[in-house]
Amino acid sequence: MTNHRPTLRSVQAPSAVVMIRPLFFSTSKDAAQSSSRSLIGESQRDIDFAEQAYVEISAAADELSRHGVDVHLFEDKSRDTPKSVFLNNWLSTHAGGYVTIYPMQAESRRKERRDDVIELLKTEYRVQDVVDFSELEEEQQFLEGTGAMVFDNIERVVYAVPSNHADKQALEQFCDHFKYEPVIFEAQHSDGKPVAHTNAVLCIGTGIALIGSDLIIDPAQKAEIIRRLEQSGRLVVQLSNGQIEACVGRSIELHSKTEGLLLAMSEGAYASLHQEQIDLIEQSTKIVQLKLDTIEQAGGSARCTMAGIHLNLREFEPELETEAT
């Protein structure tokens, strides 16, 4: 029997997200690294591929809205930002009214930062401060948002795999500012390649945690992380290497106004799960599947396409009518 009916709002699960709908989506590594222009071609294959990505994000936003999640959907019509759909790398929000902007490794991806997204957050939500770490790019220190870091907002812990996308000094600076405890661990894929983004191997919800513990190199670190997650009261779901490749780790827990806790993941991620894993997850949260086949060809999945909004809505007071005298 599941237990994911409407609950009180969780500090772990945002009830609103920002998404970017791309027009010139590309998986080209050259495009991602270019400092001057997107290298996407004009072949019919490129056009079809970009259109499929546009359709997938549109459908994902509609599906989340249907399940009671508020979606702020922005358009991206620039050829200079072929990976703009993955806005979680440059933007996050935090309880207390904080918006954070991050330093990005690829020069072209720095162009993805958008003032209109920040202004939307300031207009509709209570924002106390915008904390901008992007100047760390000048020191070659990168920290790519909720790709590089996985937050446990309940226990105030940040989990991170150090890489070119997650500099230890930048991570410590972030944790000092926001009063999180950093838990740093080394991880690599089954082919020996280092894990680039932490959210590939770890997803933390309110009552569950999904982890590819076999990718953690140090057995002592592996045991300590699992112990922490279990002591926090979460059900820990162990993921196989194949399930990591299917992007199960890149799921994201959200809060629905009508259905309670939701775990958004791709259809491919869901298809890789065993029934006992699904049953365990659904003790805590309802699974919502999103079709993201095209998006996943660029290495990202559900978690990567959303910046969760952990901010309180502004309360607009109606203007008082004054009596004529």
Automatic annotation (TrEMBL):
It holds the Pfam family DDAH_eukar. PANTHER family: AMIDINOTRANSFERASE. This is Amidinotransferase.
